[in-house]
Structures are given as C-alpha cells and as structure tokens.
User: What shape does this take?
Amino acid sequence: MIGKKIRDAFNEQIQHETYSAYLYLSMVAYFHDRGFDGMAQWMRVQAMEELTHAMKFFDHIMGRGGSVELLAIEKPPKTWKSPLDAFKAALKHEQFITGKINELTALSNAQKDFASQSMLQWFVDEQVEEEANATKNVQMLEMVGDSGNGMLMLDRELGTRTFTAPAAPGE
Assistant: This one.
C-alpha cells in the first residue's frame, strides 16, 4: 500500500508531468505557425514522452492500492521571442522538473518507501538525459544565431526525432 504523503506527492507530479506535455504542445503550435516543422516535431515527441512519464506515476499509485487524483492544469504560454527563447524555456522547465524529482526522491527515502525509490531512480536518470538534450538544443541554436541556412539545417535535424512508446507494464 502506498503511503498518503507519497501518494499526494505523486498526484502532484502527475500534474507537473501533464503540464510539461501541455507546455511542449504549445511549443509545437508556436513552431508550426512559424514554419519550423522540425522543431515542432521535436517538441511533439517531447510532449508524448511527458505523458508517458505522467502515466508511470499514475500506474505506480494505482498498482500500490492508492487513489489517483487529477489536479487542475495551468494554461501554458503560447508565444516566445524566438526559437532559442522557446528552447531556453524548455531547459528551464526541465530543471524545474529535476528539482521536483529530487524532492520526491528525498521524500521516498525519508518515508522508507523502497518501491517508490526504485521507480524514482528511473526518473533521476531520465532527467539527466532531459536536461542534456535541452542544453544541446539551446547550444545549437546559439551557434546558429541569425543564420537562415543554419536554422533550416537545425530544423531538419530536429525533425528526425521519433517517439517510441514504452512497453506496457508486465511486458
């Protein structure tokens, strides 16, 4: 049985992960409207990943006899000054999520919730990757600067990203 403190914190994390998907979907629309379909594709994959993250928490709560409570999701911004600004916002958001995962890890340690600790280790590792990817995108956009050719090349490269659905629990 999952403890109340962990359950409540995981319900909040479902909200954070779902907001992440909303934020990245908003970026999809922003990039698409500006003709950056590759960047839109990159963010679309990111949004899909965030929804799978939310479902990991959802399934963990239910699998341990807890009740899922879906909390309200704030409306994300819909415009940014530039593609670079949007990717900087994505990096800042991933850093926020890393902080939340770290808080959950500390809570599960304090509660001696070993099942949650095991699940959260996946998220600790995932956030290293998330921040590295976001940082790389910011760095590439900074290198490209105002170069139209560079933006076109980067847009094409980012558009090659694909989503692979994770295996269902028990597979």
Observations:
- Residues 114-144 form the longest helix (31 residues).
- Residues 49 and 163 are 8 Å apart (CA to CA).
